[in-house]
Amino acid sequence: MTLIPELEQELTRAITERTPASSRSRLRRLPMLVPVVATLAGTAVALAAAGVIPLGSPERESRRTKFAAEATSGLGTISPNTSELLALRVKDPGSLLPWGLRVARTSRGLGCVRAGLVLNGRLGALGVDGDFGNDGFFHPFPTVGTPRLIGCVPLDSRGELFISASEADVPTSASALHRCTGAGANGKVPPSALCAGSNTRDIYYGLLGPRATSLTYTSGGTTHTIVPQGPHGAYLLVLPANPRDLNGVGTGLIPAGRPITEVTYRGGLVCRFAGGNPEPRSDCSTPPGSTYTQPNLKRLLATAPLTGITAAVSHGRHSAWRVTVSFGAPVAIPNALTAYSIELHDPGRPRSWGATSTETNLRRGQRVSISFSNLTRPGIYTGLVRLTDRPSNVVGLGLAGPVVGRFSARIP
Amino acid sequence: MALESAPDDRLLKWSSSTPEAFAVFYRRHERVVVAFLGRLSRDPELTVDLTAETFARAYRARAKFDPERGSARGWLLGIARHVLAASREQGRVETEAREQLKMQTLRISTETLSSVERAVIEDGEMVVEEWLDALPDSERDAVRRRVLDDASYEQIATELACSQAVVRQRVSRGLSRLRRTAMEER
Questions:
Q1: How far is A83 from chain B (nearest CA, A)?
Q2: Does an H or E element contain B75, and which?
Q3: Which fold has domain B135-184?
Q4: Single pTM value for the model
Q5: CB distance from B103 to chain A under 8 Å?
Q6: What's the complex ipTM?
Q7: Residues of CATH 1.10.1740.10 domain(s) within chain B?
Q8: Does B74 contact A at CB distance below 8 Å?
Q9: Do B18 and A25 touch (CB under 8 A)?
Q10: Could you name the CATH architecture of B3-121?
Q11: Which residues of B touch A24 (CB under 8 A)?
């Protein structure tokens, strides 16, 4: 989820307007990424000689985070008894411990997967590479609280999780701090080579579903095929970090392309990922075997009483004004799959707008109050409230949906 | 999904013809920039303003980014630090890059400000410490007090029990080192 959606939207609008339509390219025309052969020259962690790894504090404590987990807002919290360490293990020459996957469900209807190192049935990270004070301990990832933003998507309509995630420059310690990302700036050595005493990995992981029979990927100039594991069709690739293959993180319902080139399913279906996207055939646009039923928002609203929307103007900071929009939720928001989005348009400039959305559960009829601040243009601001849903193939909320109501406010 | 997994230099290059590419770049680095600026400015509304100018400058300077010289994160934090320093000197956040892009004034909701506050609490300390990691202890202390705490040279000298000249030298050397390692962009 974007922290400042108003900024992302305005940046995109401004850049789009200055980009001549004739030169705008579409995704399908983007050049393919060129994979570069990298050598898996893993350095064994210093602890190998000791043979025993002590247990350290949970991961979050070491990060000094104060974020309070909220079951009814954002991604929600990990639901009790839903966290499951999968049997899949992947060895890495650069780490003493094998990599594994853990899945969980959240209180707001999302499913999540996380990759890390496995020790005694727990998923976590090692205190090496500068993390956890280099204590050499194993630090389990928490199984309660708020999940990471990476690796969560809506469950399908039967409650099954289909997901594909990727993370670049992950240290072989599996630390979520990704310290290696900021390294490497002397002009010659790539970031991955500078990560204190260790190599970094690009990891690709997820659940393809029970129908998946094989996954093919390329690495080091060679093509490999693996069999997805277990009833979820789990896969996990731990490859040498290569900034030309992957940079940053990504989460979706289907593999994001390179280095994954093909997934096969029972019944002979083959999904190929040319240039990062599935080939244009409907069978592969959502995970084969999944069913996503989006709520009929218009029908929901048709049976709901429309309650009044008000827009109150008040003084904000620095001589600016604030508009507070309030309304009673016509339909309940039970989870992260739906929300209300609120748009505000400048006086006389209907194309300019700011928008935000509720990111919390709401009871039917519950009063919602959202404020827009820093308004300085005098005149009549107009806006509308929509009921939006979370498209099945993206993590963020959409901004389309039926209009719940409209409002206006005059700034002196 | 191709854009989501594309390297930063490609995203910046494609931004000239594909606005969505810069949106992906923004989403990828937004949290780090917000956490960094939020930790330094301690004001969510100011953080939003600084973040907007930082990304507008990054878009303007996209052709200068060289992945061989360092990460996009370091490059962005370098820009962010300059935007912050200029705002402290002038008493207001510069808008030059945003004006060039013809960006309009943002109307920020209270929910967004809450998200910003939360991100700063969660990650601000970590991001700043990572940024300072490249410095020796003495320079790190001086830069932290000067840039993060906005302390005067006199105050820092008293706290570190050394002369103002030494403090100035440490801050200067530290920032130079960060500039070299982060390929800072004004």
A1: 23
A2: helix B72-90
A3: Arc Repressor Mutant, subunit A (1.10.10)
A4: 0.58
A5: yes
A6: 0.85
A7: 3-121
A8: yes
A9: yes
A10: Orthogonal Bundle (1.10)
A11: 17-19
